[in-house]
Amino acid sequence: MTEIKIRNVSKIFGGNWKSALAMTQQGADKGEILAKTGCSVGLDNVSLDIAGGRIFVIMGLSGSGKSTLVRHINRLIEPTSGEILVDGSNVLDLKPKDLRDFRNRRVSMVFQNFGLMPHRTVLQNVVYGQRVRGLTKDDAKPIGMKWIETVGLAGYENKLPHQLSGGMKQRVGLARALAADTDVILMDEAFSALDPLIRADMQDQLLQLEKNLHKTIVFITHDLDEALRIGAQIAILKDGKLVQVGTPSEILNSPANDYVARFVQRRAGAGESQHA
Ligand SMILES: Nc1ncnc2c1ncn2[C@@H]1O[C@H](COP(=O)(O)OP(=O)(O)OP(=O)(O)O)[C@@H](O)[C@H]1O
Ligand SMILES: [Mg+2]
């Protein structure tokens, strides 16, 4: 079970980051910093403990910093300040070869924009992680086919990504991350393009992975019902800042402020927590 610790991570996008960082430390808000420095505040002093073997959900409005946060965990983004510890080691210390290894073996990711390799078939995309690790084509195929079937794409294994719909591409990205069989899976809006039935199935699959294989899953969603159903813990971001982190019932019953309360009020009422 892999634990992740985010320690005082700030990320400023833009050349004038020193002034912008200083402004965040003086309590200036994101809009003011953008107006004065031209920099976007991606994250502002975020600290989080992500327990091993559970599903950890990140929520927040568009632009609140969800993708930026999750991309720090596999170092697709480097922080302006702060550190990220995965099982106690600082990912910023990884040398290029160790970083490649870390991404192949420890952490897989489902990208918000799918991130498929356009000239490879569905099956080749799905088994990519296993092949990089040295598995032969024949040995990788049954693993790939199992996940292609799980996400409902049996029969499409030899198609190329451009021959698929958006939701199908999303499922290929999902199958690829699950086939890689890493301890940590980062899922950036991984279910957003799925229809409700497949979405519910995939939520169940994730809960199974959590229960049986003790994967650490960091899951971004806009959907509060989904967050409440699958999250052991939920973190809520606003303008790059962490506004609350808690269990589904803590979020529902004691929202930290009006922003969280507004999320909770719009809740349709379905989707009971699986972490009672
Ligand atoms: N590469 C970049 N260059 C400049 N600014 C960026 C970059 N990536 C993100 N940002 C800024 O950082 C902030 C957070 O963006 P991020 O993509 O993390 O939001 P998000 O919560 O994932 O939103 P969405 O729900 O729309 O995917 C935004 O203000 C955005 O403009
Ligand atoms: Mg995003």
UniProtKB/TrEMBL annotation:
Catalysed reactions listed for this entry: a quaternary ammonium(out) + ATP + H2O = a quaternary ammonium(in) + ADP + phosphate + H(+)
Organism field: Shinella kummerowiae
Cellular localisation: Cell inner membrane
SMART domains: AAA (SM00382)
PANTHER family named among the record's database cross-references: GLYCINE BETAINE/PROLINE BETAINE TRANSPORT SYSTEM ATP-BINDING PROTEIN PROV, GLYCINE BETAINE_PROLINE BETAINE TRANSPORT SYSTEM ATP-BINDING PROTEIN PROV
Record domain ABC transporter: where: 4-264
Tagged with keyword rRNA processing: no
Keywords: ATP-binding, Cell inner membrane, Cell membrane, Membrane, Nucleotide-binding, Transport
Keyword set includes Transport: yes
Subunit structure: The complex is probably composed of two ATP-binding proteins (TmoW), two transmembrane proteins (TmoV) and a solute-binding protein (TmoX).
Gene Ontology biological process terms from the UniProt entry: amino acid transport; glycine betaine transport; response to osmotic stress
Alphabetized GO MF terms: ABC-type quaternary ammonium compound transporting activity; ATP binding; ATP hydrolysis activity
Enzyme Commission number(s) of this protein: 7.6.2.9
Enzyme class: translocase
NCBIfam families: proV
Signal peptide (from-to): none
Gene Ontology CC, one term: plasma membrane
The protein's name: Quaternary amine transport ATP-binding protein
Family named by the database record: Belongs to the ABC transporter superfamily.
Pfam families per record: ABC_tran
Membrane topology: Peripheral membrane protein
